[in-house]
């Protein structure tokens, strides 16, 4: 064991632990003056090229994607507007907890090349870390395919003569290029992608309020909560009555997980390539949940206000929907031209999320290679510090998006969202267990006061959310086959 800046670190894993000097500059320590890749003998070293604005927009870009812009339409069609709104608010509680758990750990040990499985190995169990690492990589790789599929769905809105396979190929090649160059280029691209997304969602919320209050050019008048009365706020799920309404909310809660799955981890995975992580990681974590509350809370409410749950254009098993519910609502309001602009902006959100997920999946695989949980070839990096073999391997799994060529886009999107969501819930359970073990270790050694970043209500809130997450995970199975059986 080596001691760096007051923190005990295992030999070979001290890369990236540092402190600010008297001039305010972040000074990073290395093990024996060498890079992590040289210490482990398994690969090269990544570079700290992500600035504060990059890391904040990376988290924002990964969290706000097709789950809100496309997947919310499927929830609305299935169970109605009230469960949609309540589900997103409920899921944000889980996300806030997981985000803070990870932020506390990685701020304490912001080491290069070390990803979440390393902390599981250090504080819980090496076999669990091995399983979690591959589970994370699998989830991120499938999410790349999900975003490419969503992009094909959105492009089909314009009914172009270009086949879906060609659009998917273009989508995949662009995100591969952005991830294979230097991490600073990736961060800059993600910053601008996420900026477009930020402006789009804020504009849509304002526009939705205008439509709600009667400002649309057609004769639909003041909408208010008209669609909450007809066809109704709740669409009973599986059975009628109160039980059916509760199952509708529970189904929406589970489905809403897709919009957030693996998003809190984006900040943690980028910590090793972030400038001054002990300053920038807490900053991003604090702002993350409030942005989600505004975007998902108000966004999901607006969707249920401007689009009725029985609109045939919404994503469902009976349709091959090619539009976001926001685009449908704008078209219903009679605002000509704007629906095409918004659809294009929503398309960039799919590109942004796919870009972020490819980055995260490749870093998981790279980190496992450094710790011996994956073949050493995945630890190789380019002269720009990019783990290019891990990027290519993760990208290759994303080519499953070509399933969209021979199946309905809505069906393929449901496949990918289901399998990635259940993997994400498993990962969150392990993250919370790891945090509780991490905190117990600090308490045992009387080091809790040394935490650079602390969050309120801990560890009690983590125990509560851990129980909720396990309950949600147990409920995932009853609805996984819903579309195949005709219930969704």
Automatic annotation (TrEMBL):
Gene3D superfamilies: Amino acid/polyamine transporter I (1.20.1740.10). GO terms for molecular function: amino acid transmembrane transporter activity. The keyword Transport applies. It is found in: Membrane. The chain crosses the membrane at residues 57-79, 85-103, 137-158, 164-186, 198-216, 247-267, 288-307, 341-366, 386-406, 412-436. It is a multi-pass membrane protein. GO terms for cellular component: membrane. It comes from the Eukaryota. Keywords: Membrane, Transmembrane, Transmembrane helix, Transport. The keyword Transport applies. Pfam families: AA_permease (PF00324). Residues 54-468 form the Amino acid permease/ SLC12A domain. Its main location: membrane. This is Amino acid permease/ SLC12A domain-containing protein.
């Amino acid at each position: 064991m080596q001691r760096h800046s007051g923190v005990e670190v295992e030999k070979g894993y001290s890369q990236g632990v540092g402190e600010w000097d008297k001039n305010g500059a972040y000074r990073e320590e290395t093990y024996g003056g060498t890079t992590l890749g040289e210490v482990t003998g398994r690969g090269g070293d990544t570079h700290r090229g992500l600035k504060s604005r990059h890391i904040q927009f990376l988290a924002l870009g990964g969290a706000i994607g097709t789950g809100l812009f496309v997947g919310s339409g499927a929830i609305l069609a299935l169970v109605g507007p009230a469960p949609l709104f309540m589900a997103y608010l409920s899921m944000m509680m889980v996300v806030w907890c997981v985000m803070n758990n990870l932020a506390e750990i990685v701020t304490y040990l912001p080491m290069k090349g070390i990803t979440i499985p390393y902390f599981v190995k250090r504080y819980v169990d090496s076999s669990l870390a091995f399983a979690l690492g591959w589970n994370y990589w699998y989830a991120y790789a499938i999410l790349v395919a999900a975003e490419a599929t969503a992009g094909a769905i959105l492009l089909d809105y314009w009914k172009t003569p270009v086949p879906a396979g060609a659009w998917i190929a273009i989508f995949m090649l662009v995100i591969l290029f952005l991830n294979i160059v230097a991490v600073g280029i990736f961060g800059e691209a993600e910053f601008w992608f996420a900026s477009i997304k930020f402006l789009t969602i804020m504009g849509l919320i304002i526009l939705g309020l205008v439509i709600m209050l009667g400002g649309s050019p057609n004769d639909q008048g003041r909408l208010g909560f008209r669609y909450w009365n007809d066809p109704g706020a709740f669409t009973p799920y599986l059975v009628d009555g109160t039980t059916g309404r509760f199952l509708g909310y529970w189904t929406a809660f589970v489905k809403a997980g897709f919009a957030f799955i693996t998003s809190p981890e984006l900040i943690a995975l980028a910590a090793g390539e972030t400038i001054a992580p002990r300053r920038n990681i807490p900053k991003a974590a604090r702002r993350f949940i409030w942005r989600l509350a505004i975007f998902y809370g108000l966004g999901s409410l607006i969707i249920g206000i401007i689009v009725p749950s029985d609109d045939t254009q919404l994503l469902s098993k009976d349709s091959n929907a090619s539009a976001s519910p926001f685009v449908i609502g704008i078209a219903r309001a009679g605002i000509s031209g704007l629906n095409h602009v918004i659809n294009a902006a929503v398309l960039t959100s799919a590109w942004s999320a796919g870009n972020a997920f490819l980055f995260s999946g490749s870093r998981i695989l790279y980190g496992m290679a450094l710790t011996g949980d994956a073949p050493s070839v995945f630890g190789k990096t380019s002269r720009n510090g990019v783990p290019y073999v891990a990027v290519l391997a993760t990208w290759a799994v994303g080519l499953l998006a070509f399933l969209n060529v021979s199946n309905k886009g809505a069906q393929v999107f449901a496949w990918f969202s289901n399998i990635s969501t259940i993997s994400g819930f498993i990962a969150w359970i392990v993250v919370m267990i790891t945090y509780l073990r991490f905190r117990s270790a600090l308490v045992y050694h009387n080091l809790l006061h040394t935490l650079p970043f602390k969050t309120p209500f801990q560890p009690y809130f983590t125990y509560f959310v851990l129980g909720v997450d396990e309950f949600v995970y147990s409920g995932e199975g009853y609805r996984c086959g819903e579309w195949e059986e005709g219930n969704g």
